[in-house]
Amino acid sequence: MKIYTKTGDKGLTSLIGGTRVSKASLRIETYGTVDELNSYIGLVRDQEVNAPRRDLLKEIQDRLFTIGASLASDPEKSKMKIPDLHEEDVLLLESEMDRMNEQLPELRAFILPGGHVAVSYAHVARCVCRRAERLAIHLSEESFVAELVVIYLNRLSDYLFVLSRQMAQDLGAEEVTWKARL
């Protein structure tokens, strides 16, 4: 099987359901950003500090594929059964954040991204997640987007922030706080 089809050479691609759209469309931009986020989650998962969290991070990657499939479907024409998110997926992120927060010092200031390369990867993933969330919200203003997609992306960005703090603690890295210049 060849990976290239040449059907996108004129800047169009097909959604699940067969509809051809511009590769620059908001729908393509949205699920492309979710794909970018999935790649960053893979990078975060591959950090040695996250060995105990690898299964959870893979689960998150699986859910991002679910979101990508949902966003890649033409809501008007697709008859294909697409995997779906469940409220339990959001609850899992919340329970993991609660568990990590029990071990972390109280947050008293804004945290600057950094302190360790691995922590920085988590912050980049968080920022890409926020962009994916903004794009999904924008897309929902003109086309159907499952409500749980936006909720999951919102919660995932929160999870990635807490994860970055947990990683910093696990690595013994300093959390650099923002000091406003007045």
How do the strands and helices of this protein lay out in sequence?
Layout: E1 12-14, E2 20-22, H1 26-45, H2 54-71, H3 87-101, H4 117-140, H5 147-171
Antiparallel strand pairs: 1-2
Summarize the structure.
With 182 residues, the chain is mainly alpha-helical. It has helices spanning 26-45, 54-71, 87-101, 117-140, 147-171, and strands at residues 12-14, 20-22. The protein is elongated.
As a percent range, the share of helical residues equals 55-70%
User: How many β-strand stretches?
Assistant: 2
- Sequence of secondary-structure elements: EEHHHHH
Structural class of the helix and strand makeup?
mainly alpha
Q: Give the radius of gyration.
A: 18 Å
SS element count, helices: 5
Write down the overall geometry. Answer: elongated
Which percent band covers the strand fraction? Answer: under 5%
The average pLDDT is: 92
Major beta sheet, strand line-up? 1-2
Low-pLDDT parts are none
Terminal Cα span: 62 Å
Main β sheet profile? 2 strands, antiparallel
Describe what this molecule looks like in 3D:
The structure is a single chain. The protein has 182 residues and is mainly α. 56% of the residues lie in helices and 3% in strands. Strands 1-2 form a two-stranded antiparallel ribbon. The longest helix has 25 residues, at 147-171. 30% of the residues are buried.
